Amino acid sequence: MSIERKDLLRFRGGVWPNHIQELFLRAAVCDRPDALVAWDQISKGIDIKKVDLASRQLLPLIYKNLKLNEKDPLAGSIKELYKIAVTKNRILLIEAAKILNALKAVSIDAMLLKGAALNLLYYEDHGVRMMEDVDILVKRPMASKAIDLLESLGFRALRQTIDSERVHYINLSNAHHFKNQQGLLVDLHWNIFAEASYEGADDDFWQTAVAIESNGINAAALCPTDQLLHLLAHGIKWNPTPPIRWVADAVTVIKRSAGPIDWARLRLKAEEMKLALPIKDAILYLRDRFGIMIPSDIVMHLGNKKASMLERLNYGIRTNRFGMATWMSVSLSRYLCYAWPRDERGFMAKVKDLFKYIQYECGLEHPRDLPFSAISALTGRLRAALGRQNPEK
After folding, report:
1. Which of 96, 151, 310, 326 is the most buried (most CB within 10 A)?
2. Is 266 within a domain?
3. Are residues 334 and 215 in the same domain?
4. Which of 341, 263, 267, 262 is CA-nearest to residue 305?
């Protein structure tokens, strides 16, 4: 099969990697024979500067997986991307170590999430898995103290200020983005999952955490099973460019974990957190498209798990193009599905927090900005969708 160069740019958005992106993934994570077949299909006539961002991020991993030599016409360009990733990732890890040491100095336990943890525990090569930021988890009671520490280190909250309503913001949210003057981005989490943002939700994850002691970093990380759960839950959602990296990360964690994945635990945690629908679809995708062995009873249990109407609604919105038209629709469905049932207060108090939650998730200064934000975002998404229907123009 040959691939036209223009096809590399013709993405209409979606939840799952499209055919071309799957070829990139196969070249990145499959065993060498299958990886070479995939690379042969996509490398002829390719202009790596015009590849979509998600696929481009896989090129350093492809470079290492295939051990590309100078005979490959793209080896030189991809090697440069690899070197850039090495430099950027090392800088991010150095800065992460400084923040972690500062947290430790004031007795705040910390856990590395996502890219930093994956780089240190599974990829073991600072150039193959690109990072854009550093994700750090602290225990929920320490969230405000951790925010103070970041601010003392020169970081400022993005999207909107949270100081005026910090306690309320922490109670309703699970994380916030910070940036310093040098452009370093840090995501501070006080709960791992947006769907489980409440006191005690992460206790079990902390108890089963593993240690990272590398590159001057001394912190915790999710155990392999929980790492996989986090990747799958975070990856399954609609995106203008179908997501890719979660697949490479998940396959890498499964293949390079020191011990076998505890599939029973993954199933139980997914059901406990009302994430059975996305987790089931994600593991079926890994099984059917990448040959990952999933115990049949796990698939059966997740498939037989009866999801509530709100769970189905939330999953439908997060995986649908026009459901994802604004952050507002996602925030609304997520709050109604996960936070509303846990709130034992009166109806009006719950409604007030619902609007506050959407305000925070959309990065707005005031609830009165919600209608304008919804209309503006929906209009922008509709224009983008119409534009993608005419990619040649």
Report:
1. 96
2. no
3. no
4. 267
Mean pLDDT by 10 residues, the chain (393 residues): 44 75 94 92 76 89 86 83 93 95 97 96 91 96 96 87 72 90 95 90 96 91 98 87 88 93 96 92 95 93 86 84 56 71 77 74 66 59 48 41
Q: Give residue 156's pLDDT.
A: 93
Name the one residue in this structure whose structure tokens are 């599974």.
122
Q: Give the end of a domain, one of 225, 252, 281.
A: 225
Q: Does residue 318 share a domain with residue 218? A: no
**Angle formed by the axes of helices 370-388 and 347-361, nearest 10°:** 50
pLDDT confidence of residue 379: 59
Q: Which of 202, 225, 248 is the last residue of a domain?
A: 225
pLDDT at 136: 98
The CATH number of the domain holding residue 215 is: 3.30.460.40
Q: What's the full length of the chain, in residues?
A: 393
Q: Is residue 237 part of a domain?
A: no
Range of the domain at 124: 85-225
CA distance 44 to 331: 43
Q: Angle at the Cα of 182 (from 180 to 188), degrees rounded to 5? A: 35
Q: What is the pLDDT of residue 210?
A: 96
Give the pLDDT of residue 386: 46
Angle at Cα 240 formed by Cα 239 and Cα 246, nearest 5°?
40
Q: What's the CA gap between 155 and 138, in Å, rounded? A: 16
Q: How far is CA 60 from CA 65, 125, 313, in A?
A: 9, 10, 38
- Give 9's contacts (C-beta < 8 A, 6+ positions apart): 50, 52, 391
Angle between helices 19-29 and 245-256 (to 10 degrees): 30
- Same domain? For 98 and 220 the reply is yes
Residue 37 lies in a domain: no
Q: How many domains does the chain have?
A: 2
